[in-house]
């Protein structure tokens, strides 16, 4: 569970203060998929980084699994899986298996449990043919599957994905979608940003962020009913005041 109340965050840019998040209040529930939607620069990645504990908030409160995020406890960090768009966090000299082993041991997984987790991820993302190859010369899509896998290897309760299907082909994208639906069935808390409305349509809830403010937070079904329309792309574009 993720609860943010009146969260504010600013950065200094060229000696001027830029307010990225303005009184953000959200509630992300376990057992549901929640999409974070908005233009580039809306504040999506900043919000995800704050939830992950990578940025402090200037004002407001943030609770992760009922604990104040400001405590930044080790147990809290272990309970979050994070993937940021464009940043796979991979090491060229390591193989796929070595990456998963490294991150699994980093999170304190028992060797037998880790072995089972790696075997499951290998199967789910069809990586068997290159598990023992170094990632240096992998395609973008192959690297993205490894990055997603290392995010999931420790089986946390909370997942934060920033543009998770970037670089994936249609098969890889479908693998990811099946996996997040499985996370939902396991009562995990899943928050991901995406520009792909087909992915967003899988979600139960949606948060539309525009210029650092929340323009909508609620269920997709309610959004459709309020707008008397099932065209999600059109609804989102209208809510952030863009021309179709």
TrEMBL record:
An example Pfam family from this entry, by short name, is ABC_tran
* Matches recorded under SMART domains: AAA
Q: Which keywords describe this protein according to UniProt?
A: ATP-binding, Nucleotide-binding, Transport
Name a GO molecular-function annotation.
ATP binding
Which InterPro entries does the UniProt record give?
Answer: AAA+_ATPase, ABC_transporter-like_ATP-bd, ABC_transporter-like_CS, ABC_Transporter_VariousFunc, P-loop_NTPase
Domain ABC transporter positions:
2-236
Q: Does the keyword Nucleotide-binding apply?
A: yes
Record Gene3D superfamilies: P-loop containing nucleotide triphosphate hydrolases
Give the protein's recorded name.
ATP-binding cassette domain-containing protein
């Amino acid at each position: 569970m993720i609860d943010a109340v009146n969260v504010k965050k600013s950065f200094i840019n060229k000696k001027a203060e830029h307010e990225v998040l303005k009184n953000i209040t959200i509630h992300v529930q376990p057992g549901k998929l929640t999409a974070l939607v908005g233009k580039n620069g809306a504040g999506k990645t900043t919000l995800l980084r704050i939830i992950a504990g990578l940025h402090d908030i200037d004002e407001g409160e943030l609770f992760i699994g009922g604990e104040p995020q400001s405590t930044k406890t080790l147990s809290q960090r272990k309970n979050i899986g994070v993937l940021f768009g464009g940043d796979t966090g991979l090491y060229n000299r390591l193989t796929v298996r070595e990456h998963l082993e490294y991150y699994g041991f980093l999170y304190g997984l028992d060797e037998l449990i880790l072995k089972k987790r790696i075997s499951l991820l290998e199967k789910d993302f069809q990586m068997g043919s290159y598990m023992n190859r170094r990632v240096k010369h992998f395609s973008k899509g192959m690297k993205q599957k490894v990055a997603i896998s290392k995010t999931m290897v420790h089986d946390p309760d909370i997942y934060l994905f920033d543009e998770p299907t970037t670089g994936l082909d249609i098969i890889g994208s479908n693998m990811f979608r099946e996996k997040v639906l499985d996370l939902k069935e396991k009562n995990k808390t899943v928050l991901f940003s995406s520009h792909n409305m087909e992915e967003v349509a899988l979600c139960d809830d949606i948060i539309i962020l525009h210029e650092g403010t929340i323009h909508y937070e609620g269920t997709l079904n309610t959004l459709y009913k309020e707008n008397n329309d099932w065209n999600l792309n059109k609804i989102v574009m209208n809510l952030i005041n863009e021309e179709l």
